[in-house]
Write a structure and sequence with these properties.
Number of strands of chain A: 20
Radius of gyration of chain B: 33 Å
Structural class of chain B: mainly beta
Shape of chain A: elongated
Oligomer: heterodimer
Number of helices of chain B: 3
Largest sheet of chain B: 6 strands, antiparallel
Order of helices and strands of chain B: HEEEEEEEEEEEEEEHEEEEEEHEEE
Strand content of chain B: over 45%
Number of strands of chain B: 23
Order of helices and strands of chain A: HEEEEEEEEEEEEEEEEEEEEHH
Distance between the termini of chain A: 76 Å
Structural class of chain A: alpha+beta
Shape of chain B: elongated
Chain lengths: ~350, ~325
Amino acid sequence: VDGEPPVRTFLSRVAVFAAVFAAVAAVPAGAHAAPSPRPATAGSADFSVSTASAPVSPGADGVVRTQLTVANNGAHDLTVTLRSVGVRAKDGGRVELDEQSDPVWSPGITVAPSLRLAAATYRSVPVEIRVPSGMLPDIYLLGFVAEAQPADPKATVRIYHRIGAIISVQVSGARERRLEVHALPGGFIRIGSTFEGQFEVRNVGDAGALARSQVMIGSGLTHEAVGMVRSSDEMQLFPAGTKRNVSFSYTVPGFFLYARPQAQVLYGDGSPALQTITSNGRPLLVIPWMTLILLGVLATLLTAYLIWSRRRRKARRAAEIAAGRRPAARHRAAGTTWAR
Amino acid sequence: MLRRWRSRLAVAAVLAVTACLGLAGPAHAAALTNVTWSMSNPQPSATGVRYTWAFTTPTGGTIQSITFTVPATTAGAVLTVADAYGLTGGTAALAGTTVTYTVTTPGPVAAGSSILVSLDGFTNTATPNPYTSTVTTVVGGVNTDTAASGAVTISNNSTTVNVVVARSTSFTSSATSLNMHMDPSVPALADKSQAVNLTIATNATNGYTLNVKTNQPLTGAHLSNPQFTPATADMTTGVASGAFANGTFGYAMTATGVGSLQSTPLSNGNYVGYRVAGDDVVSANAPTSGDTVVVTNRAKINHSQRPDAYSATVTYTVTPNY
């Protein structure tokens, strides 16, 4: 503003900047991840599907009784169809749903084929699964597709929205369950504050297994364990023939760490015991940046001290020569020849 | 002079190595900390109960076994190890009032490790009371660290609180159909785009996959099978907005949140064509509270496009990954 004292202008600018900064900083981190506003237009769809969190087992009659919870979270009525489909288990906990029904399981699955849900309502849909005869003990993945029907079936482009849902059915009993674990190759040295690595867990048995993985960090100097890292917070399902790559990260507490990771996978095999397989990774030297900085500072100080010391010695010698004195006796004893 | 510096450097090196080794040195023995004991059902005489102990060991070493005390008359002929972490697998047995978890192949355990042992197959004591459980680690055949848990009340009046969170996935779309009224003589109607806003949320541990597919190219209903050509054969090749050809139908896409686009052309803002076989266009590897995907569908014509009512079905499928 014309005529305004420069100091006041500067202060006002600082105040505005501080207010803006404070306003930005006050926004919670999670606010950026807030879900988008729900669509309310007539042709929109807003629905969800939920299944049991743990594998379900058949009762004494060989029938699994569970449910799918289907919710219409939108502002208008919605028709949702339900059907059973085949599932292919893939690596990394992923699944692929088939278009077609599962020829083995689908004939024994009973579920309502269609639901008409009013706005902002949900329904728990009973699902009965009759375990086909002769099924071996295993954890089976059964797929369901919930499909929201388009509001205008005669539109140019009809859009179907599907949610795939998986129900895990556990048929208990003894069966060969066997996992393998291999540490994936990494480097020998790492600059940073974390000891990181990756290993691969593969189910090479005949049946699915629930497993938990962890990594023991063993010192390469003392051969003692210095840390334990849990790679998963829960037992994970490994369908037969699939694998997962598991990563771990351990924060190095001191100036450096020379250690070897040991991947440990704990899994149940149908017996009362919990089985363990292990795999040793390659030793790794981790040097945090702070250590390098400290070493750099130390080297700089040492170099500076050496230079200062040498200059001081030279100055002292020069002073001694200028004063016409002879060098110290120890120099003579060392056989040093001094110019006069 | 040189000798003096050598001696100084040697002293410095010894101090540095000592300091570094000192950081990794073994901790002194102390009591277990954070000891908890819980049961899946606190009713007297309840069967098939899961007992879970968790604690932190202050001392490093090779733990061969862990003992847990349980109330008198607790039964458990066959105990199954349901879960464990912090040490490796093993077996469990109840003798009197002591449950022993024996590690099959003992390995070193770091000081400060969190350990959990969860065992199935207990039958609770019939005597209602508050009880504590004493946890003791055995290293080298010697009881090393020990501590008691807080009291757990076995009582008919106890209520088990189980909160079960379902596996859940939600899918929101701004539109379930698109109507594009096109006219090659009107520039504004000869090149039309319509966006579909999708929102995906899931608590699946390994995120989700979004697949898009069509049942057919946009196909006319009345004349002899006229079509819109897909903008590209698949999502590995794309066309820039300015190069979008007449007589084609395709989509561009943006994704924000945990998930990311799996196609370089889409990431670069180009258009690709729908495929009957389908494409996994967005993938996330962690749960999300609301990823937003915007699909911009586009069709472009000139006078060579035969007049007809063209239609197709597009399917967006979200599959959670556990």
